[in-house]
Amino acid sequence: MLSSTGYGATSATEPLSKLNFQRRDLQPDDVQIDILFCGVCHSDLHTARNEWGNTVYPVVPGHEIIGRVTAVGSQVTHFKAGDLVGVGCLVDSCQQCGSCAEGLEQYCENGFVGTYNGEEMHSGGMTYGGYSTNIVVRDKFVLRIPERLDPAGAAPLLCAGITTYSPLKQWHVSPGKKVGIVGLGGLGHMGLKLAHAMGAYVVLFTTSQGKREDAKRLGADEVVVSRNTSEMREHRDSFDFILNTVAAPHALDPFMELLKRDGTMVLVGAPASPHPSPQVFNLIMKRRRLAGSLIGGIAETQEMLDFCGERGIVADIETIRIQDINDAYERMLKSDVKYRFVIDMTSLKQEA
Question: Are 115 and 90 in contact (CB under 8 A)?
Fold first, then answer.
């Protein structure tokens, strides 16, 4: 067994603290990784505090992992010691259902295995995530990180990047399309960068007047304050696609009204309680669509990483020590980060 040290939660009400635990023995198709950086996702906080009601304690969060390979199993041919690699939200799936066969492991019909708070297929124990010194992952779920990307800035691509890239690709965002991004946080700022890189005309919707300048820097062609009804009215019936990244319940109708006929709004934010239901007439009168999207599969995630590698796209980050994770959670709740916290694991290894 491989000894690991991490930070995790032992209950919904306790702060994250140092934990020691064991990783599984290296299997023939496994890759062992020394973790360098791990992004901090809002899902980490939801899980640590059991806001989705499914947490098994203790839980070690973290699914935006960048590290170096330290060992590989006897059957692994695509990775070797020293490779810079990533691990996202998935570490296993059945590999036999229709979704897995199509490279859509995130929709595995038998249930994918999450990087943390998931049930291991090998041992039956729980998975522990990237707020830790190392990890052992099946080779099919390990991703190659383009060397030209800053490793710390690349970490959020493993969740925030693919969560926004996948629906942008699925709904064919491209030059000539008018695309809206709702919210300028960890997901929203990646959606802006990616939609801009895909050649779309991009409009950022925010509740904060003060975010106009930053949104333009990140790739927005226009910025609309969503509380300003006159600004919103100017864009009625004009969007091909809207990516809604907001993770708090809010009215969807004001954004549905901005879609043109056959336009689609996709929700990727995951609030702890549901959004108010949209008016049916906002859908049927223009054949508009309201959809949802998860992350991407492994092949699409690698495609996204290569896309970002070719264009030098990484997240805007603030690097923190693992010892500051509880403060980071409180700041994240206040949107006091531009735009993703990333843990430098050197701080954990020094403590360990």
Answer: yes
pLDDT, tens digit (0-9, with 9 covering 90-100), for 127-167? 999 999 999 999 999 999 999 999 999 999 999 999 999 99
Neighbours of 53 (CB within 10 A): 8
Task: Confirm whether 134 is domain-assigned.
Answer: yes
Nearest-angstrom CA–CA distance, 340 and 319: 8
With vertex at residue 166, the alpha carbon angle to CA 290 and CA 83, rounded to the nearest 5 degrees, is: 160
Q: What is the CATH number of the domain that holds 62?
A: 3.90.180.10
Q: What is the DSSP letter of 96?
A: -
**pLDDT for 29 beyond 90:** yes
For CA atoms 22, 26, 27, 30, the dihedral sign is positive
Q: Please tell me the total count of domains within the chain.
A: 2
87 CB-side CA count, 13 A = 37
- Helix H or strand E encompassing 87: strand 84-87
What is the reported pLDDT for 21? 95
Q: Which domain holds residue 102?
A: 2-157+316-351
Backbone angles phi, psi at 186, to 5 degrees: -60, -45
**Residues 284 and 259: beta-carbon distance below 8 Å:** no
Q: Nearest Cα to 326, choosing from 49, 33, 24?
A: 49
DSSP 244-265: E---S----HHHHTTEEEEEEE
Task: Decide which of 335 and 15 is more confident.
Answer: 15
Residues 174, 255: contact at Cβ < 8 Å? no
CB neighbour burial string for 135-165, b if at least 16 within 10 angstroms, e if fewer: bbbbbbbbbebeeebebbbbbbbbbbbbbbb
Residue written as token pair 């990244």: 245
Name the DSSP class of 210.
G
For residue 83, give both structure tokens: 């490779």
Instruction: Match 């490779």 to its residue by tokens.
Output: 83
Instruction: Decide: 224 and 240 in contact? Cβ < 8 Å.
Output: no
| 249, 270 contact by CB (below 8 A) | no
Instruction: Say yes or no: 151 and 171 in one domain.
Output: no
Predicted confidence at residue 352, as pLDDT, reads: 60
